[in-house]
Automatic annotation (TrEMBL):
It is a multi-pass membrane protein. Residues 487-578 form the Histidine kinase/HSP90-like ATPase domain. It comes from the Bacteria. It comes from Nonomuraea maheshkhaliensis. Pfam families: HATPase_c, HisKA_3. Its main location: membrane. This is Histidine kinase/HSP90-like ATPase domain-containing protein.
Length: 578
């Protein structure tokens, strides 16, 4: 709605000026030829409003609205001139015809179809044309004002203004020819999907030139000659808007489709979403998706809907492939997702091939696609890690504590049956204590009691106090008295535990240093050892990879710095704010 409101004022002003100027020029009742001229002229502001409202970011609609404003205000100036309007205002308004011709003859074909220059090489043409159009319009305005300024003739000023206007008009014609030649060249070089659009613009330019010739040769004379001149005027005003309108309907210019909907044959403008709209909808869809495969499926659906494809597929690096729509035929476009996480495949469209706008939209989706795929992989790894941890706990319970409890129950049954003495009861009591210790150890592996009761620093110190090598733990006093969320403390505690375990098992370290800190809104942990080190690029991190995913899920990060013979340093952090 905001886009329509932004485009509406210039469109309404242009349309109102066209109608008012046309009726002032002919008077009421207006002849049929004048009404025909007004109706044809209204095509330009209507088309400009449609494109500006539907594709405001491209700028082509705003260009058409500027041309429509120049035409409408110029017509209003002609009407006011016939009714004795202020000469200064009339001269200014009539000079806007030069702006209208400059925009329609140069910039409308030059910036076709998306409001951008074909290449940087056309910048000099655009700048020279702008100066020429300004000189033509400014000179025309000055020439109209000078003769009557201050109620006395000013022939020298009028002559200079006329020369400036004439020079600007000449350069405008030359630039128009150059732009037309470039348009023909673009038409010949265009791909199959864009050739039809360029052909229409070429035809519109040819018709405009023909209309200008007819207007010049047949504007004055008898009724029949004047009728030919009117045809020329209508052709000049309506050829380019008509060509663009046909491109909108037939070739879906700027992805705008026009059709009939419903039994009432209502004319509607149906538009594929913009890149911002697709990204916004995709973000909402990914937030609502609970499963990783569902996230990838919604990504494929967003690509298919955004580009109006028969089908779209997202393939992950592990070979997982999710297709939206009914896959038929070969993919017409593939785009790798950044980071080598996978690729997006696009099937054919129902109407026409993919355009440059489609490719830009797909490239805009590459970043959120990578994030979605990375998120899906992260969730999958976390789920797998949780399942592996559940199985480990189940196995430890089954192989350890469960068997000890079974043996303890059997011993109790035997003691009751045989009337056990003090020695047997003492053994059973010791067995029960051992089982209790094993249960506590198992529970500590899930969530250490020291972490729950004393906090991160105390739990890390308690963990490192039992290590068989020299280990130091350093932490600022302010950190000892502060508690954090369970998931934050747990993530860093188990990261430290895994890092020191790796230092003992794999590094052959003789000393380990653990540092806890709270810099810049982060809670960080560092584990450094003097072991044999390794090459991080060739060695899998295994347990640390799962912990890295856990930290990543909390918005943090885990890095490993190591070289053979120089020890290892594990750095982990999570955001805590404040």
């Amino acid at each position: 709605m905001k886009r329509r409101l932004m485009a509406a004022p210039p469109a309404l002003l242009a349309a109102g000026s066209i109608v008012t100027g046309g009726l002032l020029e002919s008077g009421l009742p207006a002849p049929a030829t004048q009404w025909a001229f007004v109706v044809v002229s209204l095509l330009l502001p209507a088309l400009g409003w449609l494109l500006a409202a539907r594709r405001p970011e491209l700028g082509y609609g705003w260009l058409l609205l500027a041309a429509a404003l120049a035409l409408g205000l110029g017509m209003l100036g002609v009407g006011l001139d016939l009714h004795g309007g202020p000469s200064v205002l009339v001269a200014f308004l009539c000079s806007l015809f030069a702006v209208f011709y400059g925009l329609t003859w140069i910039y409308v074909p030059l910036l076709f179809p998306d409001g951008r220059l074909p290449s940087p090489r056309w910048r000099p043409v655009a700048w020279i044309s702008g100066v020429a159009v300004a000189a033509h319009a400014g000179g025309a305005a000055a020439a109209g004002i000078a003769p009557s300024a201050m109620d006395r003739p000013r022939p020298a000023v009028a002559l200079a203004a006329m020369l400036t206007s004439g020079a600007g008009q000449l350069v405008t014609w030359i630039m128009a020819v150059i732009v037309f030649c470039g348009l023909v060249l673009r038409w010949r070089r265009a791909g199959e999907g864009e050739r039809g659009q360029y052909a229409l613009m070429v035809a519109g330019m040819v018709a405009t030139a023909a209309g200008a010739v007819l207007t010049t040769l047949f504007s004055y004379g008898g009724v029949q000659v004047a009728a030919v001149g009117m045809i020329g005027i209508l052709t000049v005003v309506g050829s380019l808007p008509a060509a663009i309108a046909v491109a909108v309907v037939r070739h879906r210019l700027l992805d705008i489709r026009v059709g009939l909907r419903g039994s009432r044959l209502q004319l509607v403008f149906d538009l594929r979403p913009t890149a911002d709209e697709v990204l916004s909808d995709l973000g909402t869809a990914l937030e609502d998706a609970a499963e990783p495969v569902e996230q990838v499926g919604r990504l494929a659906a967003a690509v298919r809907s955004g580009l109006d494809l028969r089908w779209a597929a997202v393939t992950l690096a592990d070979g997982t492939r999710v297709v939206s729509g009914r896959e038929s035929g070969e993919a017409v476009l593939e785009l790798p997702v950044r980071g080598g996480l996978g690729r997006i495949e696009c099937g054919p469209r129902d109407a026409g091939p993919l355009t440059r706008v489609d490719r830009r939209l797909l490239e805009a989706l590459a970043v959120p696609a990578g994030l979605a795929i990375q998120s899906a992989g992260l969730v999958t790894r976390l789920v797998n890690a949780q399942e592996a941890e559940r199985r480990r706990i189940e196995r430890n319970i089954h192989d350890g504590v469960q068997q000890q409890l079974v043996a303890l129950i059997a011993g109790l049954e035997l003691a009751r049956a045989t009337g056990a003495g003090a020695d047997m009861l003492a053994g059973l009591r010791e067995q029960a204590r051992q089982t209790l210790d094993d249960l506590r150890e198992l529970a500590a592996g899930i969530h250490p009691s020291a972490l729950s009761q004393g906090g991160l620093v105390e739990a890390v110190e308690e963990r490192c106090s039992r290590l068989p090598v020299r280990t130091t733990v350093s932490a600022p006093p302010s950190l000892r008295a502060r508690r954090f969320a369970d998931e934050v403390e747990g993530a860093l505690y188990f990261t430290v535990s895994e890092a020191v375990a790796n230092a003992l098992k794999h590094a052959g370290a003789a000393g380990i240093e653990v540092g806890l800190a709270q810099p810049d809104g982060r809670l960080s942990a560092t584990v450094a050892d003097d072991g044999k080190g390794f090459d991080p690029h060739t060695t899998r991190r295994r347990g640390l990879a799962t912990l890295a995913d856990r930290l990543d899920a909390l918005g943090g990060e885990l890095t490993v710095d190591s070289e053979p013979g120089k020890g290892t340093r594990v750095n982990a952090w999570v955001p805590i704010g404040g």
